[in-house]
Amino acid sequence: MKISYIGHATLLVETGALKMVTDPWLKGPAYCSQWYIFPKPVDVQPALNADYILYSHGHEDHTHPASAMLLDKRAKVFFPYSWYDGAVGFFGSMGFKSVTEAVNEKTYTLNDDTHVTYFANNLDNVIVIEHKNEVLVDVNDALHSAPQTLIEAIAKKIMTRWKKIDYMFSSYGGASYFPNCIKFKDKDDVEIAKTRELFFLNNFCKIVSLLKPKYAVPHASDFVLLNDNQRWMNETKVPRQKIAEYYKTYVSGYANTEIVAMYPGDFIENGKLNLVSPYRAKLKEDGLLHLVDEEYKDEIAEKRKQVKIADEQADEVFEKLKQHVNNKLYIIPEEKRKEIKYAVQLTDYSNSVFYVIDLKGSSPKVYKSGELEKDCELVIKVKSETLLFSLVHEWGGDAIIIGYGCEVEIFDIKTIEQGLDTLCIRLLTNYPNTKEYLKRVPFRAMKYLMTDSIKRKSLMSGVKFADPKLTDNMLWLSKTKCQICNACNLPEQLPLLS
């Protein structure tokens, strides 16, 4: 088995003459030009004619349409089966003829010596690739934000089937507007962001300890933000070259695993590390962040032009917003509506125009205001393109929720206590409603539930797929770093990560 690190979550896995590429993001931005892959891939050419394309889930930095268009359309696509349909049509529209919706825990034979198995955590998936006596576990985004019980349950399923794991790749960083994009009095944005990254890193270490691979590689966090007001977030990530030392220092009874910091151009072949990335000669204490200005010079300059939209374009967004609020109001619990009044401001339009969303009356009101009205609980600042994309496309809300596509200023602690900020953001998205989908495709849902015992258990017992601590508004928006560390059982003194 040869595993080449292309970038972010993209691996090229070769087993003899067979070539597989995972979650290809090869070039271009994601989430309405908010995420940029970094460090950039060194050579994507070998991945373009892969025999198989293995997708772990549908987020754009993993299922990247522009990158998929670069690949050989004769490749066979694997995408995880869920109660959400559309994958076959989506890839078919790009010219792919063979699309398999991989059923949870079913093993697929690619040839006599190579097999692939998916393990689902809701819509995220672990991909296990086995070739003869070698096993690669691509955890990806499936576990590092999951509750401890769920991490243990899926790890146990994997270890029951494969006693020895050679290679493990897993995410180790955050990807969400929450809490980084939320402003609240006395909140130390940088300290809280660093602490959250530590939370994910700690889970990465837990996964390593459970699976005990020979090599564990942190990946799927290879992106940067280029807007001047967001670039500080890039600096809160844990430099991957420090993770091995952290693991040995803070994980008691750690497994005999080598944590390997890989960069584009590095590869593993027949169990041997080949750390030959040209980026290694450019590494500094903070990693490679000093190269961002060089690699994305033109993109940064373009963002700084700050082109404003015309009145006609702003009116189009406003009308879409009004229609959307009326159509999606049902997702807000009735008892919460009487508490919600907030404003939306387009960052690429006039600074003196606010779109007010008032749900406190008998029917919702969406109107323009020349000032931020005093009784608004919060204001959401978002680019018109991002908001329109979120309103129009079924999964377009990812551009805001995952893509760091907004800035939220909260004025009152009660808004946080009641979770109103989350509801306000949610109302600006067009995510599919699970119950509606279950009614629309009942047989798909039944098939999915029959193959996923964890999902069935969650529906009966209320088990969450993501750690509840990660969505605890009060914890991340109103508490200090020390309080968060105590609540999440994280080490407070971190000289290795300073």
Description:
- The protein is α/β, with parallel strands linked by helices and 498 residues long.
- Helix content is 32%, strand content 21%.
- The chain is built from 19 helices and 23 strands.
- The protein has an 8-stranded mixed sheet, with helices on one face. Strands 8-9-10-11-12-14-16 form a 7-stranded mixed sheet.
- A hairpin with a 7-residue loop joins strand 19 (341-346) and strand 20 (354-358).
- The longest helix has 23 residues, at 189-211.
- The chain is globular and about 65 Å long.
- It starts with a strand and ends in a 10-residue tail after the last helix.
- The model has no long low-confidence stretch (mean pLDDT 94).
Describe the SSE topology.
Elements: E1 2-7, E2 10-15, E3 18-22, E4 36-37, H1 45-48, E5 52-54, H2 65-68, E6 76-80, H3 87-93, E7 98-102, E8 107-111, E9 114-121, E10 124-131, E11 134-140, H4 148-161, E12 167-170, E13 182-183, H5 189-211, E14 215-218, E15 223-224, H6 243-250, E16 258-259, E17 267-269, E18 272-274, H7 292-295, H8 297-303, H9 311-328, H10 334-337, E19 341-346, E20 354-358, E21 365-369, E22 378-382, H11 384-392, H12 398-401, E23 406-410, H13 413-417, H14 420-426, H15 434-440, H16 442-451, H17 453-461, H18 473-478, H19 481-488
Keywords:
single chain, 498 residues, alpha/beta, eight-stranded mixed sheet, seven-stranded mixed sheet, 19 helices, 23 strands, 21% strand
- Biggest sheet features: 8 strands, mixed
Question: How far is the N terminus from the C terminus?
Answer: 37 Å
Overall 3D geometry? globular
Cross-sheet strand order for the largest sheet: 7-6-5-3-2-1-17-18
Poorly predicted tracts of residues? none
The Rg value, from CA coordinates, equals: 23 Å
Helical element count?
A: 19
**Number of separate strands:** 23
Roughly what percent helix?
25-40%
